[in-house]
Amino acid sequence: MIRLTLFLFFTILIFTNALTAQSVGEQYNNFVNEAELSIVDGDYKQALEKYSKAFTETGIEFNIDLYNAAVCAHKQNNKEQFFLFADRLADKGVGAELFERKVFEGYSGSRIFLKIKQKAKKVRQKSFKANRQYLSDLDEFRKKDSAYNKLRLTKYRDSWELPDTLEVLFRNNTINLFNYVKKNGYYSEKKLGVAVTIGGYKDDFKLPLNVFLHYLEMGKDKSLKNEIKEMYISGMKNGEIKPSFLTHYIEMGNNVFNGIGNYVFKIFECGIYRLREIPELDKTNNSREMYLQGSLDDYEKKLVFAYCCNNDFEFHYSIIGSPVSKEDYFYKASDIIGKVKDCSVE
């Protein structure tokens, strides 16, 4: 009887742990979330510790996070760690242009930094050469989708329904891309060996990012849309896809994903506003947790930092623009949470 009791106890314990165990992507994202909140608070030492844990304990390194870690080290005047992260960025195929940013200009006379820039250029060129056919194939899917989308926005702009032929072409192109990715690998940073999550400098390759987004928005095949959704969720959990990369996909995914509540935030007349009362807040926060988006409060802090304060860091948190139709109601229902630095973002 004692043996049976112990057996049942350990079986339940193992089962419970399996249910509560975090995926590697969740672990990584939790560390990075804490690091970014530390940056918002100006605690660069704490941010560096969290980034280091994210990299060492999960084995994942997104370029945007390596970059922010390098900037934290720079602001801490920790040259050893700065060069360490800068060198790892070079190994990741970010290219030499990234190191031309103003935040790095103080290192321009350093021989170590010059070698890192030279390496960055060589690694990027090597990665493109190795992936030339793969990138060319992906670009064909992008071009076809662009052509179909142009027809939607011009010739069939006022049509309620697309012609069957165009609908079939649209679906088949999406299916073909989906199957190509399943066979040849998702176009992640790890797969390509070049930067995907970091921006702000000219990229010399184009990815078919809008193909899946367009189908999530306008496609009719629910099964295909759910397969795309599951691909993204799986990619987040195994650490291939940054959750922030998916924000627009989730928001514009035509009810394929559950809502994450980004409608709560709006930019109007150079200010960021937050809706005072949020319907179904618990449901929204559960959805955010499911898609590794972080709490609305954390998201608010990062949005304000990205739009109002940020000069050197990469914070890819954004508000999808939408018009304010009833200004009186908008002002009564919302609170201003920050003034944007660049009013052209409206």
Automatic annotation (TrEMBL):
It comes from the Bacteria. Keywords: Signal. Residues 1-20 form the signal peptide. The keyword Signal applies. This is Tetratricopeptide repeat protein. It comes from Flavobacterium rakeshii.
